[in-house]
Each structure stands twice: as C-alpha cells, then as structure tokens.
Amino acid sequence: MKTTWGTNHIVNDFKKYSLALTVGGLLITLSLFWFNETGSRSFLVFAGLLTIIGIYVSYLSCTDTLIRKENQSKAFAGVLLILSIIYVFIFPPLTVPDEAHHFYSSYWLADAITGQVNEEGFLVRSSDWNLFANMQDNAIDFKDYQTVLSNFELFQTDQSYETVDYFTFSLGSENPPAKIATTLAILLGKLLNLGTYPLFYLGRLFNAISYAICAFIAYRLMPFGKNVVMGISLLPMTLHLVGSYSYDVGIISLAMLLTAMLLKAIFDDGLIKRALTASILVASALLAPCKLIYSTIILLVLFIPNRRFQSKRTALLYKGGVLVAPLLAILALRMASISDLAVVTQQLDVRGSETGHFYELAFILHNPMAAIAIFFRSLIVQGDFYWSTALGRSLGWFQADIATPYFYCIPLLLGLILAAQQDSLDTQKIPAWLRMALLVIAGMTFAGSMLSMFIGHTFDTEPIIQGVQGRYILPVAVPLVLALRSNNVQITRDAFPTILTVFSITNLVFLMHVVACAIA
Predict the structure, then answer these.
(1) What's the predicted TM-score (pTM) here?
(2) Neighbours of 55 (CB within 10 A)
(3) Is pLDDT of 91 > 50?
C-alpha cells in the first residue's frame, strides 16, 4: 500500500511538473547547440542562467501559486523586471536604434538643468563622448562585449570635458516627459562621479524601472484585459526598447497608462473619482507633444458614460477639456515642427548620405489615388516586416545576422490572441462599437506613422514608404489587441500562467539566439 501511494505520488508530480521538465530540456538543448556554435564558455554561463530562469517560471505556472489572483500582478512585475534587466545589459551601448541620439539628448537635458548648456553646445565628459566618437558601426559582436569589460571602471578617472555641438537639441523636439528617467540617471551618475559605462547602464536601468512601474500600475488599473498589458510588456521588441535610452519607453508607458485609465473610466460604476479625472488630463497633456499620432488614444474619453459625472454639463466640459488640453500642449511645444510639414521647399532633403526631395502634403492633395496606391503598396511589400518587427524579430539596429526566424514570432502572436480573450477570471464582454473604436484608434495611429515617414523620410522617386517600423504600433498595441476579443470565445481556465510562461520562454530563446549569433 505504501509503495503504491509512493508510485502514484511520483507519477502525479511528474504530470504536474511536466511543463517545467519540458522547458528545461528545451533550453538545455538550445544552450548546448549554441555553445557548440560559439565555443564560448561565457555564453554557456549566460545560457545556463536563462535556463534556470525558464525552469523556475515554468515551475511556478505548474503550482497553485499563480491561481491566486493577488499573486499574479507580483509575478508579472517580477518577470518583467528580471527580463528588462537582462535586456539592459545584454546589448552593448548605442546598439539600439537611435540610442546615440537619445543618450546625448538626455545628457543635454541634464546639462540644461545644471546650467551647462550655451550657444557653443553642451558639456560632456570626454570619456562619455568617446562612446559615440569611437563607435564604428551599430552592429553587435564579440568585440563589443570585450570593449565594455576591458574599459569598465566604477568611478571616473578622466575629469576632462568637451563642448559638443554635433547634436542640435531643443525642448520642443526632445520630448522631456519621455526622458525623465534617463535624465535623472545621468544627473545622479555625474553627481556620484560614476565611470562612463556605469553611468550609461544606470540610465538604461532607470528607464527599465520606470517602465516596469508604469506597466504594473496599468495592469492594476485595467478593468479587464490585464493579460494584454502583460503580453505587450513582455514582447521582445518592447523589452529591447525598455532596456535602452529610447524615448519610446516613455511614450509606451504614458500611452499604456492612459489607455488603462480611460477604460477604467468607461467600465467602472458610480461617480468617477477626481484623482482619475486629473490623471487622465495630465497623461493626455504629456503624451500629445511626445508624438502627435498617439493622441488618438485620447478619443476614448468620448466613450466615458455621462452618468459617471455629476451632470451632463460636467461630462461635456470635462471631455472637452481633455481634448483641448493636449492640443494646447502640442501648440506650445510642437507648433514649429508641425508647420514645417506644410512648407513646400525647393531645397534638397537629406536622409543619411542620400539627398533628394521628400513627398509633401501637396502631393497627397493633388494626387490622392497615387498616394493611396503608395500606402497600399507599402503595406503589401513591407507587411511582414511591420508585424514581425513589432513583436521583436529584428533586434539591435536591424542587424541581419542576429535576426531570429519568423517562426520564433508565432508563439508571441498566438499568445497575444490568447491574452485578448475572456477567461475564468476575466469575463468582461466588449461592445462591438468599442471594439471598432479601439481598432480605428490603432489604425489611425499606424496610418499617421506611415504619413509622417511619407512626407519626412521618403523621396518622391520611391514607390514605397521608407523608414516605417513595427515598433511604432506598440503605444497603441493594447487597444489593437483588445479589439481582437471575441464575445463568443471564453477560455474555461485562467490564462495568466500560460501567457506568462509563453512570453517568458520565448524571450529566453530570443536572447540565446541573439547573443550566440552576435559572438559566433
């Protein structure tokens, strides 16, 4: 009898933890394969660390720990922080798209606060400027990791400064609200006299932590669809940006918070709280000047029921104020750049080393069918690039030799669709009119991003729009994915453990692939 119980107990445990065992086997196999390809013991240590993380997350999903709803937000925050920190350190400095611009923009903002900006430029420590001056290309390889390790010093020994005028920054163009975390990190790093690499990585860490806090708050605020917030936050592309100086981090954070607050205002009962109305107003005003195209999210304010206010008049005044305040912020900070779009110029436009004439708004007005054809042609030719890069297929600076295969993105795509659906803990149905509104908001935003690159980055001799990237959809990815929720589909179990595991393990596989290919 005792032997039978023991055997059954072992069998039941094996079934219960089979996912953790399977994941462990997969990650160990991948680790050994990539070790054989790279021959790097350092990589094997890194892959071993990822394997331990993957086994632990899978083990958690097999236990009863994540069944309790109160534990789920903590588990999400913990996994998000761990993965974000890995992304912070795994990509060498300035290897994320436009990171040099955003790093020195944050540096400029820090100098502006301390009064170290003048007509000649802004003050940069010589070793900090050498990060950019010595950068040969944006590609990631084994030498980059060697350079970081060999030149890493905790405290700065070279106290020389340079006045830099290579970059031209202004408050209107650099979106200070999206760079608060990185600017504070540089101020703190210089105050503590940190070395160049500690200062640089501190900025990345501050950006990652600020995003994790915002994502956690958005997760808690969401009246439904919390798994969508988790899925978007754990996309490799999101984490890649989160672990960098990109101002997209601030934009995605604000957009996600604003979406969560507006949905809460729409679906909660009773009178709306003053704290929520004030937060919506502030977030709307901060988001709009960062990128005009993401102001489409603010349109959700129109769907807040009037019954949630003291009177219909109060509701109309508030909604009007939320719509007007961002417009005033845009006019105050971004009017010059907006007006430039309508200017017809005979001067040559510059794109890298190329020159020519960009398309202008006048072209769309005079040739609407031709313009529509260019937009549709771009979607057809570049569609695979858009959706795959939104998920994270091409990390780094579109470095071809570290790009992951398309099929790596399939679990992420299926995971987002799963996250959108109702489950045993989330039974909220979304009215068809709201699903359509969410889809229109996402569509308008992506169309706006295409338009901005059409008239600001595409020569009038080119048949498709240049420069559009999948990551441009991430700030409105929550509305887009929520629009996929079907009122006729409901998962009978809690989907949280499955989604957390799928996104976590897929990230680990992505990271192994990227690092191994970079150092091979």
Answers:
(1) 0.91
(2) 21
(3) yes
